[in-house]
Amino acid sequence: MKSKSSEPDNKYCKKCSAICCKNLAVEINRPRNKFEVENLKWQLHFDTVKVYLHNRKWHQLVEGTCIYLSKDDRCTIYETRPDKCREHNPPECEFFGKYYDIMFNNPQELTDYLKSKKSKKRNL
Ligand code: SF4
Ligand code: SF4
């Protein structure tokens, strides 16, 4: 995902193994209809893709390492790193624990979650 400096100013980044540069997380819209649910389920067929909910917001996570991260976990373009990287800072980051409330690792987990939401609504 985002920031990790070649010379990080932040004491937490110095201790961290650049967790945020090893996954790409992007906020996405909540799936609103059958087509959008099927589309999300299709994306979850790929073992590098996950979907998660955090504070009721939906995110897509793509596993993989930023091409600008060095072998020793330093950003090689620190001075010109993207704004998204600059905006991502402790303590609002993965170093401080669980960054998701619910993680969907495959299509079935998403299906089960949506089914349980539906049946809870029905029982209200
Ligand atoms: S550009 Fe640098 S800070 Fe941003 S994700 Fe890549 S290595 Fe991390
Ligand atoms: S996960 Fe947090 S502590 Fe670790 S490098 Fe990224 S911003 Fe710094």
List strands and helices in order, with pairings.
Elements: H1 11-15, E1 23-28, H2 34-43, E2 49-54, E3 57-63, H3 83-87, E4 102-104, H4 107-122
Antiparallel strand pairs: 1-3, 2-3, 2-4
This protein binds iron/sulfur cluster (2 copies).
Task: Explain what this protein looks like in three dimensions.
- With 124 residues, the protein is an alpha+beta fold.
- The chain has one domain.
- It contains four helices and four strands.
- The protein has helices spanning 11-15, 34-43, 83-87, 107-122, and strands at 23-28, 49-54, 57-63, 102-104.
- Strand 2 and strand 3 (57-63) form a beta hairpin.
- Residues 1-6 have low confidence and may be disordered.
- One iron/sulfur cluster binds at residues 3-4, 12-13, 16, 18-20, 88-90, 93-95.
What is the overall shape?
elongated
Percent strand equals: 15-25%
Give the low-confidence spans. 1-6
Q: Quickly count the domains.
A: 1
Lateral arrangement of strands in the main beta sheet: 1-3-2-4
Number of H- or I-type helical stretches: 4
The total of beta strands comes to 4
